[in-house]
Amino acid sequence: MGSRFVKAMVAAASLSLASFGAQAQESSENQVAAMTAWSVFEEKQGDEKECWAVSTASESVNTRNGQVVAVKRSDILLMVAYVPQKSVSGQVAFTGGYPFASGSNVGVEIDGNSFVLITDGEWGWPASPGDDAAIVAAMKRGKTAVLTAQSSRGTKTKDTFSLLGFTAAVEEAGKRCQ
C-alpha cells in the first residue's frame, strides 16, 4: 500500500524536520505556507505536482509493559496529500518514526471520533478514499488528533497533534494542487 509520492514527500519534509522539529518547516525551500501548527509544502517534478499539509507531534508518550520509556524515533508526522496527476485528493498518511508491528493498525482519535489506519512498514493510511475524507472532515472540526500504535519491538506509542491551523493548511495544499 506504500504510496511512492507520500514517501517522497516525507523525505523532503523530513530533511527539514530532522534536526530542528517543527521550527525547521519554516526554513525549508519547499514550504509555501505555515498555519499555526501546520505547514504546507509543494513539490514539482516535470509536469507532476505534489502538495501536502504536515505537522509534527506536539506530544509523544512511549510505553513498554505499562511503563513510560525513552526510545529513539525518526520524524513523527501526520499529513494530508494532493497529487492531481495521480487523482489523489486529501490522502491522509502518518509515520510514527519506527516500523509498526506486523499486522497492527494505528488508532486515530479526533475529539471523540475514532478511526483506523492500516500499516505498512513505517506508514499508516486509511483503507479507502472515503475514510480519508471522513478523517479530514473530523480534523477540520477538531482540536487534537491522538494516534496510538505499537512498534515492531512492542513499544506502545501515543502521539498528539494540534489541529490549530489544519483547515487553512489543508485547504491551501488542495488549492495549490487542483
From TrEMBL:
Signal peptide: 1-24
Any one Pfam family match given in the protein's UniProt record, by short name: IalB
The name this protein goes by in its record: Invasion protein IalB
InterPro entries, sorted: IalB_sf, Invasion_prot_B
Organism: Shimia isoporae
Gene3D superfamilies: Invasion associated locus B (IalB) protein (2.60.40.1880)
Lineage: Bacteria, Pseudomonadati, Pseudomonadota, Alphaproteobacteria, Rhodobacterales
Tagged with keyword Signal: yes
Keyword terms, alphabetized: Signal
